[in-house]
Design a protein that fits this description.
The complex is a heterodimer of chains A (about 325) and B (about 300). By secondary structure, chain A is mainly alpha-helical. Chain A has 14 helices and no strands. Chain B is about 75% helix and about 0% strand. Classes of the chains: A mainly alpha (about 325), B mainly alpha (about 300).
Chain lengths: ~325, ~300
């Protein structure tokens, strides 16, 4: 098992290397190059030349790339043009908010999605199944940001059931430990802070989790239908094994392989949806950093976020492969 | 016993019916019977027709501001439906209904443009990988892996952000690039699956030229999944383009009637006139749903497992 993980880790290295090269090229193809991007409105040809010297941009490209790689590996992404703060510090502060939101969305999608998909498959062709399938088709057609706007308007403004924006009520003076609002409340035993943070999480999590939910339901349904037709399920049923055991040991376990891949893929995609959701709910996580970075063309920040997203994606895929190996031992040897 | 015999008879009848029909004709026949496919096709056709005739049937000039609509009113008030203005005014005193109609054209243009560019580039990459195999294949696929390792919306954002000023072209290109690796992988997979299939082996044994095998045998037989994906991509491309507009990466021209932009602008007025957000969103959802339904039923119809 350990050997499998190590091997997969090594396989991820070339991908990440080429990716860093792409981001490097991306920075170089910006209007005015990185110096122009750094100077922004104040850019004049003389200033760009001077800054190019300082930044070492007059050196051969491959030397520049290795220096860039060295900086990236030591975590030096430069300073944000907006706040003047090191980008990494900014990201570190915003990251917990996005992780919290993504985990909540994912939890919503998985906890609801797998049982729904399973039920739809068990009642194939009946009303419940048809309704679920139609629901999933509509679910992926709804733009994330509109769902956010809609939920906010109906449940926060009109019905006033949930808070419309933010991570926590401003009147709550919560102690910050990890910047995970819910976790901090638990750690410091400020229960009201935790509850309030959870309350704020509901609408954004539903908005962000709906597309993964729809996808997970569909994959679970298709995958369970496939497995139900397998010989070993027929055998298990025929030899009189109790239905719950057949369901758990034979059907679900085998049907979970494609589902876990999908969950992994969706986790990687969440960051894209988070940008939109965070904007609607004024969430203050990575998505807000990104949105603000786009508006002001803050390239050091964008570059760091881009690399971070890719690294997360590659790691998530790695986790998916490892979970494969746990669910299905045959994967380990191949 | 009787039922079994009947079932067998029906199966033979069906086989006879489908004998001699091509896969495409067979798929079309099956789609004509599927309500999902018909609903999808109707939505898509209506949408396409609408985007062609929109400028002619729009009751008012979608770009003209009617000062009489907003003049003398409170700054936070936008008038609703009234005679001559079916859905009322937008925030700048323009006919909202006409803008909604013309928006269909914009969405179709962006969706089709992005999908076509992505399709052509993806097929070139995937086709080369599938036809040549070997190191060409492994390099090209490593390349697509890396493109796929960035979430598509983030990839689109980073490409759109390259332009110092957003425009419709940058949106189309940004969305197109995100679809390239998917088309490439699909076509490559379908072509590789054929390399060792009997008809390719037979053609090779007969001494048919490589180029002919690739273009006459492998490529046409691999197009099914690509066409399905293209249909589904039209839906995601329209949503993704709207998302870019919403984030302020689209064309900043306030005259442009684009559903994503209308939706983004409406957020400020959501307490006053929620319809300004509602209608463009419903339009996006219906169109995306139409392409999704069509694509899914196409996938089902082309699946040889369902062929009878």
């Amino acid at each position: 098992m350990l050997r499998f993980i190590v091997r997969r880790l090594f396989q991820a290295i070339p991908t990440l290397l080429v990716l860093s090269l792409l981001v490097f090229i991306w920075l170089r193809s910006l209007p005015g190059g990185p110096a122009g991007a750094l100077l922004g409105d104040k850019a004049t040809p003389e200033k760009i030349d001077a800054l190019n010297k300082v930044l070492g941009l007059d050196q051969p490209l491959f030397i520049q790339y290795f220096k860039f790689l060295g900086r990236v590996l030591t975590g030096d992404f430069g300073s944000s043009l907006i706040s003047g703060e090191p980008v990494l510090a900014e990201i570190g502060r915003a990251l917990p908010a996005t992780i919290e939101l993504s985990l909540a969305a994912l939890l919503f999608a998985i906890v609801l999605g797998i049982p729904l998909g399973y039920m739809a498959a068990s009642y194939r062709g009946r009303f419940l199944d048809n309704a679920t399938v139609i629901g999933t088709l509509v679910g992926v057609a709804v733009p994330v940001f509109f769902l956010g706007i809609l939920l906010k308007q109906v449940f926060a403004q009109d019905l006033a059931l949930f808070p419309p924006s933010g991570r926590q009520d401003v009147t709550i003076e919560a102690t910050r430990v990890t910047n995970f609002a819910v976790l901090d409340g638990l750690l410091t035993q400020e229960w009201d802070a935790s509850a309030d943070a959870l309350w704020h999480l509901v609408l954004p999590a539903i908005a962000l989790g709906t597309i993964p939910l729809a996808v997970i339901v569909r994959i679970t349904r298709a995958s369970v239908l496939d497995v139900l037709n397998e010989d070993f399920v027929r055998t298990a049923n025929a030899k009189g094994l109790q239905a719950p055991i057949v369901r758990r040991r034979h059907v679900l376990r085998n049907a979970m392989l494609p589902v876990s891949t999908t969950i992994g893929l969706q986790t990687g995609l969440l960051l894209g949806g988070a940008v939109l959701t965070e904007r609607v709910f004024v969430w203050g996580g990575l998505g807000s950093l990104l949105a603000q970075g786009i508006e002001r063309r803050d390239y050091p920040r964008l570059q760091a976020l881009l690399l971070l997203a890719a690294v997360v994606y590659v790691l998530v895929n790695l986790l998916v492969d490892v979970s494969y190996a746990i669910i299905d031992p045959r994967v380990r040897t191949s | 016993m009787m039922t079994l015999l009947n079932r067998k008879k029906r199966r033979v009848d069906e086989l006879a019916e489908s004998a001699g029909t091509s896969l495409a004709a067979d798929a079309l026949r099956r789609m004509a019977r599927s309500p999902v496919a018909i609903i999808g096709a109707v939505i898509v056709l209506l949408f396409a027709a609408l985007s062609v005739v929109a400028p002619f049937i729009a009751p008012k000039d979608p770009y003209r501001r009617y000062p009489e609509l907003v003049d003398g009113l409170r700054a936070d008030f936008i008038p609703g439906p009234m005679p001559g203005f079916l859905l009322g005014s937008d925030e700048l005193g323009r006919d909202f209904f006409s803008r909604l109609l013309v928006g269909a054209q914009q969405s179709l243009f962006v969706g089709v443009g992005a999908t076509l560019i992505g399709l052509v580039l993806g097929m070139l990459i995937g086709g080369a990988a599938g036809a040549f195999g070997g190191w060409v294949d492994s390099w090209l696929m490593r390349f697509t892996d890396i493109m796929l390792s960035i979430p598509s919306l983030l990839l689109a954002i980073s490409i759109a952000a390259l332009a110092s000023r957003g425009s419709q072209t940058t949106v189309i290109i940004a969305v197109a690039v995100t679809t390239v690796p998917i088309f490439a992988r699909l076509l490559r997979g379908a072509m590789l699956a054929q390399r060792h299939s009997d008809h390719v082996l037979a053609a090779t044994a007969l001494g048919v030229k490589r180029r002919t095998i690739v273009f006459r045998h492998m490529l046409p037989n691999s197009l099914g999944p690509v066409i399905v994906q293209a249909t589904l991509t039209l839906a995601t491309a329209i949503i993704e383009a709207a998302s870019l507009s919403f984030l302020g990466l689209g064309d900043p021209d306030p005259d442009r009637a684009e559903w994503g932009l209308m939706l983004g602008n409406s957020q400020r007025w959501i307490d006053v006139r929620p319809e300004l957000a509602f209608y463009p969103a419903i339009a996006i959802i219906i169109v995306a749903l139409g392409f999704t339904l069509l694509g899914e039923s196409l996938r089902e119809a082309l699946d040889p497992k369902n062929r009878r």
